[in-house]
Structure formats: structure tokens, C-alpha cells
Amino acid sequence: MKITRLSSDVSIRRSSAAASDEQLQAVKNIIREVREEGDAALFRFAKKWDNAELTDLRVSRDETERAVARFDPQLLSDLTEAADNIRRYHDNQKQKGYQVTHDNGSYVGQRVTAIESAGLYVPGGTAAYPSSVLMNVIPAQAAGVERIVLISPPSEDGALSDGVLAAAHILGIDEIYKSGGAQAIAALAYGTESIAPVDKITGPGNIYVALAKSEVNGDVAIDMIAGPSEIAIIADHTAYPDEIAADLLSQAEHDSMASAVLLTNDENLANTVAAEIDRQLAELPRQSIARAAIDGFGAIYLGESMDQLIHAANQLAPEHLEIMTADAEGVADNIKHAGAIFIGRYSSEPVGDYFAGTNHVLPTNSTARFSSALSVYDFLKRTSIIHYSEQAWHENQEKIARLARLEGLEAHARAVESRQWKKENL
Q1: Which listed residue (319, 322, 337, 360) is catalytic?
Q2: pTM above 0.70, yes or no
Q3: Is 320 among the catalytic positions?
Q4: Closest to 387 in 3D by CA, of 112, 111, 113
Q5: CA pair distance 292, 114, nearest whole angstrom
Q6: CA distance 199 to 59
Q7: Which of 96, 205, 206, 331 is 20 to 30 Å from 272 at the Cα level?
Q8: What is the pLDDT of residues 278-296, one digit of tens each?
Q9: What Å distances lie between residue 26 and 23, 31, 153, CA to CA?
């Protein structure tokens, strides 16, 4: 990895490839075909891109039960315990409405209700992600979503991975469909003969999934447009180079466009980590993917002070930020922008991916400056409640009418004043 010295006005941004016109047009065509042809389009796309001859889009109860029976009992136990941790964390995000009552008898408030249905996309392809099932479903369940749908690309034999189905079984989800890519997003958004549309779509995916979510946004809600995975690590002389290298590679193996950045004020550490990454890369099963990520989007930045490293991290606003320093808590207190912060040597990023309980669906491409992790809040609606008493109307109707006329909206003013007319003419 290249080592670069930080300047005082450093501006770090993770490079990401923009979608091509061809990709965007392909997604538009796929969405149109799904809207026009429904299930037939999904079957055709499954054959074309997944090499799967499907006779039914929905996963049967028998398929799920067989998958659970085949699944390793220890892994099933691990997933169950992870689910418990995730649920405990997200249950604390539940919200209640409130009401503010005034002396004149009027009140205003907020009613919090769950959306009625959510479609949760689980990636397939180079890897299957049971953890994505847990991370997307559990906050929706904690929010009180009534209908939760899973959709995921099938393998060539027309099945979903045992791990994905086992995770769904643990959570009691039985509405599961076999479809991937932009066509799956279109089906969730607009419905087909087999799949009823949903109100919100969440879950990560490739560039075609991201483009499709962007296209349907507005007809349905989406969580975010997620880019390739990112990790940044702030480390000083107290950190262990082999551990830093391992953590950087944990994200590099996700995607050839994943970003892995080390920010350090120790030159010896920088050099040792660079060498250690080369050594560990040679031993990784997903070596070609990780190497492409490191070569394209990996970097080591050498700063002079911890304040400079913190400043650079806040500019980067990474998806994952690990802090391995003598005063890790103190450094964390000064981080303003990160999707998730991992404090201390033993808080390796995969701890959050799988088991700690926090959500691993996080903002990327520096959007942590204004975005948050997927949570219960993403599945809730907040409705304003207004009840004006006769006394409150009498006290304030002239003020309201004046403000309406200030904006040139006479009908607004008359709407408030009409109550006075009706009372005088009873």
C-alpha cells in the first residue's frame, strides 16, 4: 500500500465508479419489463443471469425446513445468539408518541406508527449473507412492521443458501422469494402476480440493485444507496500491525472497489502494516478481490499529530472507523462523522458485522456526514396530531389569517375565518 503524508488541508474522499449510461438504461429496461410482464420477467431473468430454471418464485415451507435440517447446529446456535444481541440493541430504539396540552384545551402531538410492509433484499453472488437477514429483519420487527418480505438471488439449482433460510427461520419469516438484481427491486416496488408490492425496500446489493433502488425511490421508500464497503483505522505506536492489516483486509475482501485506509502518526507502524498486508494477502481465499481493492482504493496516510488524524477521519466520514490508540475513548469522543465507531484493540470490525448487536447496514461514500445506520427509525412513520379547541381558535384565528395574507394565500385566511362566520349565523 502506498504511504502518503497528510497535509494540513487534506481532503480524503473514497473513489467510486459512477454508473455508466449503459448500466442505467439496462436497469430502466429491467424495471419496465417487470412492470409489464410480472412473474414471466422474473423467471426469464433468473434463467438469463442466475442460470436457474424456476417453476415457483416463493420459497416453500419444505425448502426452508430442509435447509434448516442441513444447517450446522453450532452455526444455527451462533446465529440465534447473534439475533438475540441484535434484537436487544434495536429494542432500545422503539419510540412512543407524545402530546402537548395547552391551558385553552388545544393539544398537539406526534403519533408513531410502523410502516405496513417492508421488502428486504439479501445479496447473493460471490457470497451469501445470513447476517444481512438479521440486520434488516430485526429492526423492522422491533418497529412493528406487519408484513416482512425477503428476496434473494437463487443459485443455479434454484435454491437460496441454507444460511439465509436458517436466519429467516430463526426470525419467523416465511414470505421469501427467489429473485435478484434490479428485477427483484422492481418486483418489490411494483408487484407481480406472485409478489405484492411493499412500502419500503432495504438491503445492500451491487450497482444494479443500487441503481434500481434509486429509480423506484419515491414510488416506495428506500433505506439508502449503499456503495462499496469502507474501513478506516486510526492507530498509533500502541497498535499491532498484523491486527491492523487483518482488519483492513476484512473489508477489502468484500468487493474489488472496497476502501481500506490507515491513518497513523507512527512511520514504523505504517511501513510494517504495508508489508503485513502483502504477506496476509497471499493467504486469503478471496485474494484477487482483496488485492484489487487494496491496489485501487487502499491507502496509508502518515500524519504528525493525533489531532491531524482525527481531522482526516472526520473528512473521510467512513462507513467503519476503528480506533487503536493509547487513548481510544478520547479519540472516539472527537469523531463527528462515521457510520460505526469501533473502540479499542478487541473491537474488530467483524464484531459489529455479526455479533455485538449494532446494525451493519451503514452509510458509505462519506454520507455518514448526514446519514445513519439502518435502525428501527427507518421503519417508523411520525404523524402530526393537531386538535384546536374553540378557545384556541378564538385566541389565534386573526393571527393565522394575517400570516396567510402575508404569503398571499387568501383562501387560507378565509378557511380559518369561516368558523367565525358559521358561529355568527347559527
Answers
A1: 319
A2: yes
A3: yes
A4: 111
A5: 42
A6: 21
A7: 331
A8: 999 999 999 999 999 999 9
A9: 5, 9, 18
